[in-house]
Amino acid sequence: MGERVSDGRTRVERRSDQDLFVTRLFKAPPGLVFEAWTRPELFRQWWAPKSSGVPLLSCEMDVRTGGGYRLAFGQDADNAMVFFGKYLEVSPPSRLVWTNDESAEAAVTTVTFEADEGGTLLTLHEHYPDKDALDEAFVGMEDATPEQFNQLDALLAALQ
Hints:
By secondary structure, the chain is of the alpha+beta class. It has one domain (4-159): 2-Layer Sandwich (Alpha-D-Glucose-1,6-Bisphosphate, Chain A, domain 4), CATH 3.30.530. The protein contains three helices and nine strands. It has helices at 30-38, 40-46, 131-159, and strands at 4-6, 11-14, 19-26, 56-61, 68-73, 81-91, 95-99, 108-116, 119-127. Strands 1-2-3-9-8-7-6-5-4 form a nine-stranded antiparallel beta sheet, with helices on one face. Helix 1 (30-38) crosses helix 2. The longest helix is centred in the C-terminal third of the chain and has 29 residues, at 131-159. It is globular.
């Protein structure tokens, strides 16, 4: 494996046929980074890559173990792409785990927030059901994720 993509700050790496890891160091404390992932009014400001031209139309998040989320992207509600799932673990400010239930080929996502070098080392791990599902996801993530994380970085700087 070991297929990697990096923009100098965000590292996207396949570590097996089913596992994708994304890491980035943010210059903000873990509690603030965690909030940006769990408060809808913050999340909606950074999640959709601006270059895609596909806005986040709605963002519903019940961030607690057993709670759910629903995100809709698109130009209008009738043609929106919808992503949804359940939170399996919510451990502020260090860990989030959720399902992606919109497809049988979707991953289980774990995000950890670890204090490091005066900031937060964020590790996003997606575990896919098989190699084909990861192959399909990797193509989109290699460009979108660094852009999302740049947007998150800008939001965190503005909040501090």
